């Protein structure tokens, strides 16, 4: 799978399940680290962007496209 730009508002399924059993996350913030909220238990985590990108299995929903610079 090609690397896709991560957007705030994306809902992604990750390869590695959270300890709560959930696999789906909503992206809250992007940057050097990605902040994501587990949709199953509502826990918030920070993951380094390259690590987060590698863990993405699928996009379930995409956030709005960022405005062009
Ligand atoms: Zn969870």
What would your notes on this structure say?
The protein has one helix spanning 49-55, and strands at residues 11-14, 24-29, 33-38, 44-48, 56-61. The chain has one domain (11-61). The protein is mainly beta and 69 residues long. The termini are far apart. A 5-stranded antiparallel beta sheet has the order 4-3-2-1-5, covered by helices on one side. It is globular. β3 and β4 (44-48) form a beta hairpin. The model has no long low-confidence stretch (mean pLDDT 92). It has 1 helix and 5 strands; from the N terminus they run ββββαβ. The structure holds zinc ion. Zinc ion binds next to loops.
Question: Which labels suit this protein?
Answer:
69 residues; mainly beta; globular; five-stranded antiparallel beta sheet; binds zinc ion
The domain count comes to 1
The SSE order reads EEEEHE
How many angstroms does the end-to-end distance come to?
27 Å
- Which outline best applies? globular
Largest sheet: 5 strands, antiparallel
CA gyration radius, whole angstroms: 11 Å
Which molecules are bound in this entry?
Answer: zinc ion
Low-confidence stretches: none
Strand order of the largest sheet: 4-3-2-1-5
Number of helices: 1
Mean pLDDT: 92
Helix content: 10-25%
Instruction: Give the amount of beta strand, in percent.
Output: 35-45%
Structural class: mainly beta
Task: Count all strands and give the number.
Answer: 5
